[in-house]
Every structure is written in structure tokens, then in C-alpha cells.
Task: structure prediction
Amino acid sequence: MQRTTEIVNCSTPDSLPSIERISLIPRNIKLKVVFGRHIQNLRESIGNQWKKALPDFFIGIHTVEPEINIAKLISDEEILEHQIFFERCAKDYHSLATKLITDLAIHLKVEINLDRPMDTFGIFKMGKQRGVMNPWEYFFHGGHCAFFNTKTNQEIEVSLLSGAEFGALDAYFFTKYILSTVTYSPLPVELYEEYGDGTRILEGMIKLGKFERVYSDGGWQRDIIVKGKNKPN
Result:
């Protein structure tokens, strides 16, 4: 989903938007605060103040341009209202991730080491990291295998560092998956910031008892999964 950007040019400290004004920004508006020449040195300190005062907002302090971008993230109330939807998405994610990586193992003619899947697929990161398993394109990178459906544009990332739990949830990847899944459209709630909204969704669903943190890969990595789904189907 796309936001409308509202630009606020500020030349003095008094012209900067107040915390109250920022807190009233609707979720479909992104505020771009541009610091004039005489107050550019205040950008970082002001941005950090806003971050502390507005934990439910994305506050992006630009490292080069004299600006701060502000956007309201998904609220606790919205997560509570749509918890069934997010739970469904996580279960679907788990099922699809497990199916795809299982099908890929068959396609590549390997047997998955369910304790350490990276031991199975790591060899394909050396010059063979990309391929096609119609209609899916796959790409091994880092500790994941990315899948892209060339027919529907659906995207999903499968963790290779979480033992037999291929549906481990990452804030950014989970939101990308939701936004790219046609069957979820139109979404019951607006999502704009892949990482910011995704982080709040994961944390909110843990608080609601729908998601949980588990240790994987020898006990050193802590993953977030949908509750009751820590084993492949």
C-alpha cells in the first residue's frame, strides 16, 4: 500500500511539528520534516527525542538529506482486532514454506537434514544459488531460501537455520509475504512499513499468545513461530 507524503519545511525550532501534531497523523500519511539550513544540526537529536516519545511510529532520520520521515505503524488495537487474520497468515506461511523446501529438495535430489537444513542446502550457495522450479524461482542467500512465484508474484522466505521449523517468522519477510499473497487481498487492515508493521505484528501476536519464541539450531537461535506449529506438517 502507498502513502501520501506531506512535506513540512522548518526553518526554526519553533516551526517543527509538536509531538501532539505528529501523534494525530493518520496511517495513510507520511510526514517528511525538512530541516532548514540553520537547524540542520538539530536533526539527529530531535529525531531521537521523537523516537522515545512516539514508540508506535516509524521515525526515519535520514543520514544524508536534512530530513526526518515519520509514519504511524499498525496499532495494538488493530492487531487485536485482526489477530485471527494474522494467525491464519502465519499458519499458511508455515505450510507453504514447508511444502516449497520439501519440493525443492526433491527437485535438487537431496535429502534434508532436519536438524541442520543448511548442511543440506549450503552447497547450492556456491555458484548454484539461483534456479527455477516452475512456477517458482528460488534463490539461496544468507540463512534463507527465497521463493518468488512468477505467475502470482507471491514472495516467501524459508529459514534454513531453524531446524525442521521452516515457517520461522521474520518481521520484514512475513509482511512481504502477506502483501504479495493475492488471496489475502483486499487486506482487512492497512500495512505500509514492511519491517516496522511486521515487528509490531509479531510482538503483538506473542503478547496475545498466538505466536511464541522457541530455540532452534542447537539452542542458540531464537525464532518466532505461530503457536503449535513448531513441526512440519
